[in-house]
Amino acid sequence: MKNLRVLAVAAMLGLSPAVVAQQPETPLSYYLPAEISYNNNIPTPKDILGYNVGEWHASHDQLVMFMRQMAVVSDRISMVEYGRTHENRPLYLLTITSPENHQNIEQIKEQHRQLTDPEKSGSLRINDMPAVVWMGYSVHGNEPSGSNASLLAVYHLAAAQGPEIEKLLDETIILIDPSINPDGMNRFASWVNSHRSKNLVTDPNSAEFDEVWPRGRTNHYWFDLNRDWLPLQHPESQGRLAKFHEWKPNVLTDHHEMGTNATFFFQPGIPSRNNPLTPESNFKLTQKIGTYHAKALDKIGSFYYTEESYDDFYYGKGSTYPDVNGAVGILFEQASSRGHAQESVNGVLTFPFTIRNQFTTTLSTLEAAQAMREELLAHQRDFYKNALDEAKKAKTKAYVFGSEMDKARAYHLAEIIKQHQIEVYRPKESFKIDNVTYTPENAYIIPTGQPQHRLIEAMFEKRTTFQDSLFYDISAWTFPLAFDLEHAALSSRNFKSNQLGQKVDSLAFPAGEVVGGKSDYAYTFEWHGYYAPRALNQLMDRGINTRVATDKFSTADGKQYDYGTILIPVAGQHINADELHQVLQEVAQQNALQVYAMNTGFTPQGIKLGSPMMRSLEQPNIMMLMGDGVNSYDAGEAWHLMDERFGMRPVLIKTDDFNRASIDKYNVLVMAEGSYSNISKDKLRSWVQRGGTVIGMGGAAKWLADNGIGNITFKKVEPDTMAQKAYAEMADSEGAQVIGGAIFETKLDLTHPLAYGYTDEKLPIFRSNTLFMERSKSPYANPVMYTSEPLLAGYISKPNLQRVKNTAAVDVSAVGAGKVIAMPDNPNFRAFWYGTNKLFLNSIFFGQIISGNSARAEEAAH
What we know:
Blueprint: H1 2-12, E1 37-38, H2 45-49, H3 60-73, E2 77-84, E3 90-96, H4 99-103, H5 105-114, H6 118-121, E4 131-137, H7 145-159, E5 160-161, H8 163-171, E6 172-177, H9 182-194, H10 235-247, E7 251-258, E8 264-266, H11 280-300, E9 328-335, E10 341-344, E11 347-350, H12 351-371, H13 373-393, E12 396-402, H14 407-419, E13 425-427, E14 431-433, E15 436-438, E16 443-447, H15 453-460, H16 479-482, E17 486-491, E18 500-503, E19 513-515, E20 522-525, H17 532-541, E21 547-549, E22 553-554, E23 560-561, E24 566-569, H18 577-590, E25 594-598, E26 605-606, E27 614-616, E28 622-626, H19 632-645, E29 651-654, H20 655-658, E30 668-671, H21 681-689, E31 693-697, H22 699-706, H23 730-735, E32 742-748, E33 762-767, E34 784-793, H24 798-804, E35 808-815, E36 818-823, H25 834-846, H26 853-861
Parallel strand pairs: 4-6, 4-7, 7-9, 19-25, 28-29, 28-30, 30-31, 31-36
Antiparallel strand pairs: 1-5, 2-3, 3-6, 8-9, 10-11, 12-16, 12-17, 13-18, 14-15, 20-24, 20-25, 21-24, 21-27, 22-23, 22-26, 32-33, 32-34, 34-35, 35-36
């Protein structure tokens, strides 16, 4: 307590932070309940780490060291590794309960899972069952009070003595995930610890509180893992969700931080912003649990608020995903010290104080879960029973999706769905809906009459009406639209259970092959497959010459080849025909492609294989700007796509280094959402004029337009200054004009290189900004346009809906010998927008061949 008194006195007297003495130790007694005794045989955090909790920011390896030791010394704790991060750090889940429960843990786990099965849950005696509480700490690495509080939580649960703790452990299974984001945690801890002074500096201008880009919030690829509970694109999320469904917890806590000048928030959030698929009983339980938090925070004198901000709409967040799985998710937001101690409007905010609030609400959650155990168990049982009743009444009896041309995309959507414990089937036989034929080989069926009915609806619905016009996150995420797959909702009129074929117990990546054996002439593969760009890149990596068809053709056997077909000649390669055949067999298999052996270049229809319309391709040598001014989320999504998924090697160049970097060896520049005021526009323009391709997305496209690099024009959106409005309505009124994330319909020019591989001229696009790009004066420059009635799912205000109609989604302009490709939207959003990834990849591989009439017309038009 002494350190807090020193800081408080200094703040009251208006003393300079420089006079604040070296931080004294914060004893365990500052955090722990005074009325509880602790087992001296259990080591304290200081015994293991060498310092008191809150004195330093624990690094991930220190956190792991502590957790491993506690699992060794305590018979109340077991620990399993559930995954590895991109940086190969282990992810651990601790199970804490009584030794007796540990002896029967598999039986308890199975019984608890049965609670979510309406066929079995009715026979369970919930008054005898323990509640399951999951505690997740610091999904954002630079919100460290949660992970550091987990040290106290595990120590307390291991060492506390007395009948109260024994009863808690007997009636509760406590699951602790001490660090959901180890890579981000380590990045942040390294920064603040290396900038900590011996005598704590609390001035907000200190470098300690201003970590460098991309900061520690995100994972290795700069993704916000708190948005990945539904998409499941990262190993952290995939491993965590497997454990979630292994246990089906009743309560899940999600410990975060917010601005330094705030206090403490706990859910519920704003009632009108709950997802309508979440039952009202969930909100009431959250409210009741909140009374325990209020009482505990009152006891230690901490200020807080609830039901005034944040929401529970997007099910991809950690505090909201449980709500659609029969549990109660609870968000905690603690004002952040962003270091060890920082001045705020509430006085000097210390790191130990932030940890104490997180630990205090950890204990209040456990108290509530124990007291409300039967209510929570009954809620989960009833949630799944009611879900099945709703399914029986619902018009939609099943969803079907698939793709004849691209089995890989359909496979990846089925892969995600299965991880959510949703049953997936193949059709028993082919059937046709809305002129689309779905076959057992290319399609999947999801019957809605299963316990996960509400989650199925959440993933497939196309909602366009809402109770509230403000959203903390996105308002739409319809998965078949994100994957650009053929899909349909099946009613009782066109779906019967006997249409279900084989249940998909395990998924196998689609097969690829070389069709027609070895050729001494050439091979081809079409660009429809999702992994066709990866196949092309693999061939280029091996120095194999490739060409692309800029028009259609057919062969004597009647097979038609589309725009964007890749041609691999046998002659002129640095490897012989046998070696080339072997390489193509490997590439076809790895990328789910059909590669066709060609024995003649004389095609009966369309262009010949030696036509000048078969354009030679140069391997992209990619640079991507990162650093100050660049949106790390959008940049990370592009980096992840190129590196992790498609095997490319983009060179990441900091914006501060661009002006002095030698860039002539690169032929593609990726500019993600951001402001690029610190790079030389003259250097960039000159590079493009010499033949480079620049891809500008979101704010980068606007920056290119504002600096005259490319002929791009954006609409000017004038604010409404005429109407008099109430000051209290300002936040809601302005917030309603934000496009937080919705899905829109666009129309493709399927003959354009940027649309190669698409077979349907309608393409769903995700939009999360109010940048509206005007149609070009050139008739060839906009291969993707918003339609006249574009809204497919999500919220957009009426004025913005009018603004987006018939605007350009992509603009291509020639600048000298190079190209500027502008996209106001992000085609790589959160890594699960598989459907628009091809626009981005086509820009990389085919930007170089956009020439001839389109380029000349663009230059002439301007």
